[in-house]
Design goal:
Bound molecules: NADP nicotinamide-adenine-dinucleotide phosphate
CATH architecture: Alpha-Beta Barrel
Structural class: alpha/beta
Order of helices and strands: EEEHEHEHEHEHEHEHHEHH
Oligomer: single chain
Strand content: 15-25%
Number of helices: 10
CATH topology: TIM Barrel
CATH superfamily: NADP-dependent oxidoreductase domain
């Protein structure tokens, strides 16, 4: 497993599990809880969810899986990095605090390791950040960050002292969505902000990609593992692929131990050229 370092010095796994589309149907719940437990058994220790996913359903699936996995002895709470997100519509001073309490209840934990603003809404950033800082001082969250913030949003966050406590920005990033490389990632590096890559295998599409298939063959891994290894080639990058399937969970986890060669990287650049001009950040 690779690790990345947050600006407070904490080392966290570079590969985590996404949970979008979990918790949407009661009929799927048992399998979803099992998939998250399977992820813990496979070695995943970072999990990404949001109050939005399944209207709290995904947080509740994650909460149940954490409890069961702790009881079964397959994981300890202190090893886990639980990431969740507040909706912009709840991002007011009081709204954030209430939303966080609801998330903690569904997750059945007493602190969130990383709490993100899901995307920027109408509430002034200073107000949301004041609420994040209150939660951090009360121990209800350990760290906070943002999501879907472009470079100009990050610059606005950095325009006031407390905004600089932001530890991560979660954005869409895969070989087929490279816009963030142009000026956002350099900005993150300069300011010690960790990038969390969401939809890193383009919602499954890169599993069928011929370029990653041929790279994967050279390394004895699948196209998906190769596509994830490509995202993880950067030292300050966390990728959070979602999967509800045990073989996929294992396959994806293996990507965190693969080093791509210069030849592999050139092949990706030829097929998925890097962005040459500023474009607004893409979302899925
Ligand atoms: N902050 C935001 O605005 C935002 C937006 C989007 C996503 N996210 C987060 O990022 C996570 C990941 O993004 P995502 O769910 O959009 O897309 P993703 O992780 O790129 O792709 C997930 C899809 O790929 C399939 N898949 C996974 N591993 C595979 C493998 N080895 N071979 C073939 N197919 C595979 C999954 O199906 P199986 O279940 O069958 O494996 C699922 O359909 C989300 O779950 C969520 O936590 C955040």
């Amino acid at each position: 497993m690779r690790f990345v370092q947050w600006s407070n010095g904490q080392r966290v796994p570079a590969l985590g599990l996404g949970t979008w589309r979990m918790g949407e149907s009661p009929r799927a719940r048992k399998n979803e809880v099992q998939a998250v437990m399977q992820a813990f058994e496979t070695g995943y220790r970072l999990i990404d969810t949001a109050e939005m996913y399944g209207d709290g359903g995904a947080e509740s699936v994650v909460g149940e899986a954490i409890q069961l996995a702790i009881n079964a002895g397959s994981v300890r709470r202190e090893e886990l990095i639980v990431v969740t997100k507040v909706l912009p519509s709840h991002a007011t001073r009081d709204g954030v605090v209430r939303a966080c309490e609801r998330s903690l209840k569904r997750l059945a934990i007493d602190t969130v390791d990383l709490y993100l603003l899901h995307w920027r809404g109408a509430t002034p950033l200073k107000e949301t950040v004041a609420a994040f800082e209150q939660l951090r001082n009360q121990g209800r969250i350990q760290q906070w960050g943002v999501s879907n913030f472009d470079t100009s949003d990050m610059q606005q966050l950095w325009s006031f002292a407390e905004g600089r406590r932001c530890i991560a920005n979660q954005v869409y990033y895969s070989a087929s969505a490279r816009d963030a490389e142009f000026d956002l990632f350099p900005w993150h590096r300069e300011h010690s902000v960790v990038t969390m890559a969401y939809s890193p295998i383009d919602q499954g599409a890169l599993a069928r990609d011929a370029t990653f298939d041929s790279i994967g063959r050279r390394h004895g891994i699948s196209a998906t593992s190769a596509a994830l290894a490509w995202v993880l080639r950067q030292p300050d990058m966390i990728a959070i692929p979602m999967s509800g399937s045990a073989p996929h969970l294992r396959e994806n986890f293996a990507a965190a131990s693969v080093d791509l060669t210069a030849e592999d990287l050139a092949q990706v650049d030829a097929q998925f050229p890097p962005t040459k001009r500023k474009r607004p950040l893409a979302t899925t």
